[in-house]
Amino acid sequence: MIGFLRGVLAQKHPPALIVDVGGVGYELEAPMSTFYALPAVGAEVRLHTHLVVREDAHLLFGFATEPERRLFRDLLRVSGIGPKIGLALLSGMSVEAFLLCVETQDAGSLVRVPGIGRKTAERLIIEMRDRIRALGEPGPAAGQPAVAASSGAAAEAFAAMVALGYRPAEVARLLKGVAIEGAATEDIIREALKLAAGK
Q: Which of 7, 104, 141, 162 has the most crowded Cβ, counting Cβ within 10 A?
């Protein structure tokens, strides 16, 4: 099991990134909560990791904080929840917000996440109720977003949200409500996810 990676951030294209560890490039997928905390490409980064082994692939997932990784692991134990939905959940809400949804039995907020229907939301609330106490206090807020935006920031944001499970037409609608000019990819996605959540 790979517990964490520390190396140089070589690439980041939400939800995928590559970390160069001693000349070996590790490909990871990460939720947007982690992308908000990433430094600029070329800087050193340390990520908590979780490895999912399937018959056709070994998938490595990275997280900025230990509470994010613990929640992701607990989500995977829930019937019907896979890595894609786990990433979408952590991209659509913070660990604290998810814990609040479970504690208050707020299925309505959970169904706004792509891939989660009413039955899945109710199952999450029931099965996670006893597990959330083990998550403890979440870590500090995510760090600063990247300063400079690439010319294709809007296109990258579009691709990232589709990869998270949103329909292309819905992503196009959400991005129309976001100030894109001069914004970093992570900032565009953050604002679009807020719109999707009705905040």
A: 7
